[in-house]
């Protein structure tokens, strides 16, 4: 007991002394220790356990420490831990074949990266080289990663201090609850958001635009399911002007939405697909671009000017093969779809019926947001201090939440069980009842 508590303390001490954390003022970095996990649960060295309803950064779709994936990494490590991307490697070919098997017809090639940001970075580069055009259009409510072009394509606050790439233009996507277009129905929101995009394209000069880059379902920005006709309308606008459509499936892909790709639910076919996170649940860092045939053909006889030392890294490739095979054989994507429809959606709607602080619940699969408001009529966001209190109270009761702005994202692994969902909903319920007492 004493020894394990000491390990937690040692981990905190070393972290405070030597680790520089992402997106944080260093004095305010988290002190939560995680030593191990299994499925939808993680624990520290002393055995204090948490229900992981964040899937970390919404990436551990297959759950923690799935034995089939761990075993595949172990076996690959014994065979070959690393090799240059210029070589031919069986695990890499097997991984690419499985990835394209889930893509629409007309996609045969995968460019592997280390994660999601460099996937978008390279998709943007391919679009520019293929079209000979320059500008990339993306939405204000988006996150595309933290590298040169990806962070400037990003719309949210993280772009602003990092705005050093050129050729990026932003527009507003649909978001009915906080409509930029004074819309009151999903149809109206869709139509007006498309009109706005058409005007942005016309004003920027259609022949200067290489691609429109969109998260199929904006994730960190709030899990806004696209309204009817929106993505089809974007596709149509793009086609009319010879603009490519890049769909960022980094967060919403590989099971999160209850489908292999989120765009499978919207009858739209992109030109480039970017992925990372769920493809191997981050067991080894990996991401990539799935390339449609005409764009791949651009580089048949022309050099593609891009590469990474760890592109197609064997440990990542073996983990992708095992992850995708296991997700298929264990019906993990179906579980995400069913549990979202049958249990998570109805349970969150019931919470919204009980707690006036919940302004809207939206989502599908294991990809849900509860948007919290100080006032249901004005929809004024719940202030940051209250969100902080809710977050601490959830962690104290053993639930790791994903809290962003004024929202709690309910994003457990795709393998989450009905019992775990019931436990989590009881914790949300209790915390929403008690943690804000004495406010407002
Ligand atoms: N795109 C989306 C939609 C994301 O959610 C993220 C990460 O959260 C990224 C890209 C960047 O991925 P990475 O952090 O692996 O670079």
From TrEMBL:
Which EC numbers does the record give? 2.6.1.55
Give the UniProt keywords, A-Z: Aminotransferase, Pyridoxal phosphate, Transferase
Q: Name one GO molecular function term.
A: taurine-2-oxoglutarate transaminase activity
Q: Which domain of life is it from?
A: Bacteria
Q: Which Gene3D superfamilies match?
A: Aspartate Aminotransferase, domain 1, Type I PLP-dependent aspartate aminotransferase-like (Major domain)
Q: Which Pfam families match?
A: Aminotran_3 (PF00202)
What PANTHER family does its record include?
AMINOTRANSFERASE, AMINOTRANSFERASE CLASS-III
Listed NCBIfam families: PRK06062.1
The UniProt similarity line reads:
Belongs to the class-III pyridoxal-phosphate-dependent aminotransferase family.
Please give the name of this protein: Taurine--2-oxoglutarate transaminase
What is the originating organism of this protein? Agromyces ramosus
